[in-house]
Amino acid sequence: MNIKDKIISNNIEFKNRVVMPPMATAKADDKGHITNEILNYYEEKTSCKLFSAVIVEHSYVDERGKAHNNQTSTSDDSDIEGMRSLAKVIKDNNSLAVLQISHAGSAAKKDVTGMDPVAPSAILNPASKSTDMPVELNKSQIKDLKDKFIDAAERAKEAGFDGVELHSAHAYLLDQFLSPLTNKREDEYGGNIYGRIKLHLDIIKGIRVKLGEDFPIFLRMGAGDFMEGGLSKEDSVIAAMEFEKAGVNVLDISGGMCFYTIKDTRPGYFDVISKPIFEAVNIPVILTGGVKKGTDVMDILDRNVCDLVGIGRSVFKESDWMNRELKGLIKE
């Protein structure tokens, strides 16, 4: 697998095997609107023109799901204008622009939102010791949240984004439904893996109905919790296959209740959970984590554990990293 190879899959084309994964900047204004600071940040990080796709940091679909102060929003039509400017910056730098949409669930804090957090079950978020006890969602509230995700995807498309990514990792709401550690429901949204992904499937199908078959849907999946009693590899593979059947075009593999790091620090450390998914699905798989050198990207691709590699913290720390480490490998 060569870093320069294109991937053409259904309705999406990646010009090479490198993507910029979502990383929160906390640079929005107090209403979640895009600021010049955000536009300048993405201009700086993408001006190398080397990323095949840029997945923009998580944007809340509902104020009650706001994860932190100065997080970006796609919860209201007033967000579209700023998002349009952001999508343009990325696309002008020759990358696909994908917007990650999210709800923090029990990871939201009352002192940020002014509201009690909500979750599949009334269980403290295992990824954070400081969160408030969430209120268990009723079925009507779950259906309302489904609609909020669909509406956010519609706003992203209207703003000119090339796709959306559903955030079901890092102990946020959709991940809380996915994980048996946080989903103890006894109705159709809980129980076995099929129940625990019902909300995901409803959102995916709803986006397909509203935006058509050609609008790309990515899904960032917390494919392992790395905690006793957490999501099993078997269930993560079943979930991945069901997401593909429902219409997801790209799977972006990361951690669940362990957030985005584990004790293993080698490049591509989540390959233990990405490999079985990569082998089970027929859509592109992204793997992010631990990349410090350009050769790390080639090493990960050579392991046959993913199709695309995300480069996050290295670029976050050093804007010229891509030019220094990968320009010679990607461009002739």
Automatic annotation (TrEMBL):
Signal peptide: none annotated. It is an enzyme of class 1 (oxidoreductase). Residues 11-329 form the NADH:flavin oxidoreductase/NADH oxidase N-terminal domain. InterPro entries: Aldolase_TIM, NADH_flavin_oxidoreductase, OxRdtase_FMN_N. Its EC number is 1.-.-.-. Keywords: Flavoprotein, Oxidoreductase. The keyword Membrane does not apply. The keyword Flavoprotein applies. One of its GO terms (molecular function) is FMN binding. This is NADH oxidase. The lineage of its organism: Bacteria, Bacillati, Bacillota, Clostridia, Eubacteriales.
